[in-house]
Amino acid sequence: MSQQYGKVYLIGAGPGAADLITVRGARILGQAEVVLHDALVTDEMLQLCPQAVKIAVGKRSGQRSTDQAVINQHLVDCAAKYKLVVRLKGGDPMMFGRADEELRALEAEGIEVEIVPGITAALAAAASTKQPLTKRGVARSVAFFTSSTAPDLPEQTTLPDCDTLVQYMGGKEAIKTAKNLLSRGHPSTLPVVVVENCSRPNQRVLYLQLRDLEQGLTGCDGPVLVMIGEAMAPRGK
């Protein structure tokens, strides 16, 4: 007799605030039997699924975390035990969320998967700072990027060529990013907006220029998003 599996949902929790999860995401979370959640998922978000078994499988840059292969196996094992499994990811599952690895592991076992999108940090940061990523006559292209790679892959040193750049997990990479852009001829006065702990009560916003970013970011303990480009210039009163 073939193995019978439940269904797995990859749900985007959004940038942090519990009320920024989608209605569909919250509804399914409230029906879940087990929830495997990231380290960045807040306690308030987990209150939306009091009925579920909760398994922390967090991954944080620069910190000890659960290996991706272990997470993949957890998902398969939970699908064999429960009918409704949720993998709850910060932001959107399809944006720097390692969804590809998890989808491959589940599909290899013939497990049904559905993805529920979430608000990615870049859009939430633009909203909370009231800094549009695009601006008529100033910026009509946006690139989301990260310098982080898999352990066995070389670090990404090239940057996208777009009007507005948004760097995820950019706190430790700030100096390299700034030097890279300056070497490409970008002005030292290019506007930069840094958002730490986006959408949370302890959110912190820094309004800088590229020359400031070159000096590095200090005192940032939470997830950091760096937005760079002329569209980030403060609006006149």
Low-pLDDT segments: none
Rg from alpha-carbon coordinates: 19 Å
Helix content: 10-25%
Number of strands: 10
In this structure, how is the largest beta sheet organized? 5 strands, parallel
> Order of strands across the widest beta sheet?
3-2-4-1-5
- Please trace the helix and strand order, writing H or E for each element: EHEHEHEHEHEEHEEHE
Strand content range = 15-25%
Please tell me the overall pLDDT.
Answer: 92
Gross morphology? elongated
The DSSP helix count reads 7
CATH-assigned homologous superfamily of the largest domain = Tetrapyrrole methylase, C-terminal domain
Just name the CATH architecture of the largest domain. Answer: 2-Layer Sandwich
Termini distance? 70 Å
The CATH C-level class name of the largest domain: Alpha Beta
